[in-house]
Amino acid sequence: MKVAVLSDIHGNYHALENCLQDAKKRGAEKFWFLGDYLGEFPYPQKTMEILYKFKEENDCVFIRGNKENYWLDRKYNPDCEWVDGNSTVGAMKYCYKYIEQKDLDFFESLPISRHVVIQGMEPVLLCHGSAENNRQKLLPNDEKTREIVENYHEKYILCGHSHVQGVVLDSDKLVLNAGSVGVPMNSVESSKYLMLESDGSQWKYDFITLPMDVDKVEEEIRQSELMEYAPFWSRSVIHVLRTGEISQGTALSKAMEIDEYKSPWYLTPDECWEKALEELGIG
């Protein structure tokens, strides 16, 4: 049995389609999705339509990422902090504009972690960040990560969130980060996902890297309404796609530093963003 594990799509439906097609060709029978379905790319409904159709036709498990928290926070708190933010949160405001009630219902139905048992196989823990907190990163060579996973009963732990594909921990527990379908770090013009294969009792794994047509994705971003909502954030996303370096969060931190932390993060001034991108070499 083969299982495809996909995380951090972030609305990149071109990459999602490519990964799903590739996983099918490789013989995947089950599909586990680790959250962050929307957030950085235009036309979010295209991503949701692909996911809804795919789950009707395939054996799928979905969990909730931290991005889904933003949409649900906005649903239940119309005065949440980012609702009056500037272009810093423009991508979130753009995305929420097109999210439908059925999407919110779907996100709300998802757990932040899931214990999966397949007959004859070692159980697997699925999480976006950690099992308790989908904003928490499980990181290599990190004592806090070791402490967290020691409390889990499962031997196999699959996560996302950091967008960095690879083995997080390999001891009595095996922690694997599936990487990001939509905006992977440490990877140039590509998409990442994880393939598991059963040997009857244990899981073997294969980290998959696929080429991404970044020219097409960039053109779509630049020609979309998203670019008007979030010009600096979008430029940062494009830079990550091209280079695999300098995450949007890092760019935001630089802009906040230039602002001397005078403004709330969601109101970081545009002029500070512009200077930050210039200093970081982001076009």
UniProtKB/TrEMBL annotation:
Gene Ontology annotations for the cellular component aspect, listed alphabetically: cytoplasm
SUPFAM superfamilies named in the record: Metallo-dependent phosphatases (SSF56300)
An example Gene Ontology molecular-function term: phosphatase activity
Ranges for domain Calcineurin-like phosphoesterase: 1-197
Family: Belongs to the metallophosphoesterase superfamily. YfcE family.
Protein name, as recorded: Predicted phosphodiesterase
